Amino acid sequence: MEIKQRIEQLTAQLNQANYQYYVLDDPQMPDFEYDRLLRELELLEQDHPDLAKADSPTKRVGGEALSKFQKVTHPVPLMSLQDVFSTEELGEFLSKILEKYPNTEFTVEPKIDGLSVALEYENGLFVRGATRGDGVVGEDVTENLKTIRSIPMQIKNAPARLIVRGEVYMPKKVFESLNARQELEGKPLFANPRNAAAGSLRQLDSKIAAQRGLDILVFNIQLAEGVFFKTHKETLSYLRDLQFKVIPCETSSDFLSIQNCVMQINESREQLPCDIDGAVIKVNDLALREALGATAKFPRWAAAYKYPPEIKPTVVEDIVVQVGRTGVLTPKAIVRPVRLAGTTVTNATLHNQDFITERDIRIGDTVSIRKAGEIIPEILEVDLTKRPAESVPYLLPATCPICGAPTRRDVDGAFLRCTGAACPAQLSRNIAHFVSRDAMDIEGLGASIVDALIEHKLLASAADIYRLSLDDLKQLWQKGDVAAKKLLASIEASKQQDVSRLIYALGIRQVGAKTGKTLAAAFGSLDALMQAGIDDLTQVDDVGEITANFIADWFRQPQSIDMVEKLREAGVNFQSTRAITDARFAGMTFVLTGALTKFTREEATEKIELFSGKTSGSVSKKTTYVVVGENAGSKERKARELGIPILSEEDFLNMIQ
Description:
Elements: H1 3-23, H2 31-47, E1 71-73, E2 82-84, H3 87-100, E3 106-112, E4 115-122, E5 125-131, E6 137-139, H4 142-145, E7 161-169, H5 172-184, H6 193-201, H7 206-210, E8 215-224, H8 232-241, E9 250-252, H9 255-267, E10 276-283, H10 286-292, E11 302-306, E12 311-323, E13 329-340, E14 343-349, H11 353-359, E15 366-372, E16 376-382, E17 407-409, E18 416-418, H12 427-434, H13 447-455, H14 470-474, H15 481-494, H16 499-505, H17 513-523, H18 526-531, H19 534-538, H20 545-556, H21 558-569, E19 589-593, H22 601-610, E20 614-616, E21 625-628, H23 634-642, E22 646-647, H24 649-656
Parallel strand pairs: 2-11, 19-20, 19-21, 21-22
Antiparallel strand pairs: 1-6, 3-9, 3-10, 4-5, 4-7, 7-8, 10-11, 12-13, 12-15, 13-14, 15-16, 17-18
């Protein structure tokens, strides 16, 4: 088979598999087979880029990052809907239409809590996707929308021009996984799936959007040249035939059945893969929609019924404390089971000590509870008239409930953290940090391997990495002696890393890679750093009193002392090769720009720091020198404007030799 035919065949096979998996929710092709065929297609397209199809599934992974989003004027405005908040208001909306047009049929569908977009096709090919914006002008997010696998890249038998409207959302399961990953990496958690979806769709780097697992439900035809429909229901059926993932829809023509549909959607919301914040009621007849028209803001033929947040009383039966992967202690109220928003609630978040204190929440209290953002149950207030006489204020523990190490409140926040270096709750994240590229740089020890080693009880602290044997690793790779030996070699090599990397790897609060280098240069060894007092530490550049206390506290903890001794026994290097013996760049700030050919930026930075200098990513009046490589661009221009000395690579080499 010739290459062109094979590329066409693979593209068709993989697109059909995507449709079955992401639209029909009925996967037919095994994951292994899909990955194998996709890899074959990628290699063929790399060798023959001119033969790659416009709808190739390889385009789903994201491309080059954008500098900004372009504005798009919608050919057909994306109007918003008038909101109704009660059955009375819903009745008023329906009555206005039914009085003039009796027996009107309506459609009822879930109102997805996501981000509205328009998808534009020309001759069946997806050419543009834009956010709603203000309804008239939105932003071009085509590259990010291409990463959503349920959006068809090419449509068979499509009109010459087609524009459809849909709601991009983040599935609940994806949202939970994303937040778990954010927590593992020590990043802020997303408040709810809608915020996560909106933030993901507006990433300038489409590769990031591709990792976020976004999905879409299409609910309207904005424009379809040469195709005519009588009803909204008919348009949805047409969209489904074109292989779009279409919103579920019911039809009804009397108030009672419409009200029942609205309430049923609310009751079944937990079964939906995405969050909803209401139901949308529309006139089904498209000609009647034209007759009804629109106001300046809303169409007169549709309304959005917004579900009110349910608030119910319950009793706080207990308060338990969980320890997250970053060491944060999170209190949770165990409450008497109560039905809320279609699900049974048995616990509620208490956030932190400040939240508990402000509301004076105690065990045994009768409280009002609701679902905040329709996701997380939250306590609103306490009914003091029902408070038990023996109740006492609740305080978070002074020691970690998992490992017994002291807890410490964040200086810059309301959170309490465990300070244990080997706390089991934080172990996976701590080890992932320890082996990371800027720390001990142990290649091959990824998150899945770390978790497996912890599960097999082979790792109780980061120091245990250096006790692993070939027999231990064979438990993970039954036929993988080569991979196991390669990992052991990487572990052994890491023992010789400069102590600056080890200091960073220990995971001390506010001690980043740069501070690790500074401390290594100032003290020369880990032992000297361990013995340093607060006054000694604060004499070091970029180490303030708060950071100094974090460092001193960490080295005082029994878990930390035990870990350091295990690292010493394993032969890990405690000495610095970065001790400052030549401070020729003291007080100087360098900016590196352009393509450097004689050394990498990391190598240049290390030299500057070795001579007590600093580097910066931007040019300012405080910059001492700008080192320029090829195609230096705007930083070189700004340096000339400010009169800052510019160094070639040769000039810089002369300075450091």
